[in-house]
Amino acid sequence: MTRIIAGALGGQTLTSVPGDATRPTTDRVKEALFSRLESYDALQGARVLDLFAGSGSLGAEAASRGARSVLLVELAPKAAAVCQLNATGVNKGLKAEVVSVRKGSVDAVLESFAPVPGGSRGRSWDLVFMDPPYPLTEDQLAESLKRLSLLLEQGATVVVERSSRSAEPAWPETMVRFAEKKYGETRLWFAEPVEIGAD
């Protein structure tokens, strides 16, 4: 059973994705992750992007803990449907439309937010979760991170969740890893945007 751990909706249960198509973040890892994010003051009022969202449990947790808006991005039809169910439940509990869902590939959704040359900057984010499926290659992950790097607010936090046996992600030159933590079979990487040429 998946649940929201803390915040306004602490204890509320979430629908899980049927079968083994997704790899849910364990409660232990989720609790440690969100404790760290709260110590960074990364949640209150944040615009959150949950990529490869699965059931949307990370985004739901962020909404419960004070995020201003949360977008769940999921390609798999069953998982996207579960995301919508959980988004509806969270919004009902919060009595506000905080969580929304986009069904589609991560790269396509990121591309849709890309800045327009000579025009507006595009949508930007304060906190991003990336929990890609294990079959996603390191090159594919690097490409997604490169697209994402154009959409981050100054001071944003990006959390990448991978197998503890996976290599460190190849960060784009405009993003730097500032922390990592291993929890059993899971490793979390924390990164933030940097300006090229900045000290």
UniProtKB/TrEMBL annotation:
For this protein, the record's NCBIfam families field holds: 16S rRNA (guanine(966)-N(2))-methyltransferase RsmD
Catalytic EC class: transferase
Q: Which SUPFAM superfamilies match?
A: S-adenosyl-L-methionine-dependent methyltransferases (SSF53335)
Q: Which Pfam families match?
A: Cons_hypoth95 (PF03602)
Keyword annotations from UniProtKB, A to Z: Methyltransferase, Transferase
What is the scientific name of the source organism?
Answer: Paeniglutamicibacter cryotolerans
PROSITE patterns from the UniProt entry: N6_MTASE (PS00092)
Looking up Gene3D superfamilies in the UniProt record yields: Vaccinia Virus protein VP39
Q: Which domain of life is it from?
A: Bacteria
For this entry, the protein name equals 16S rRNA (Guanine966-N2)-methyltransferase
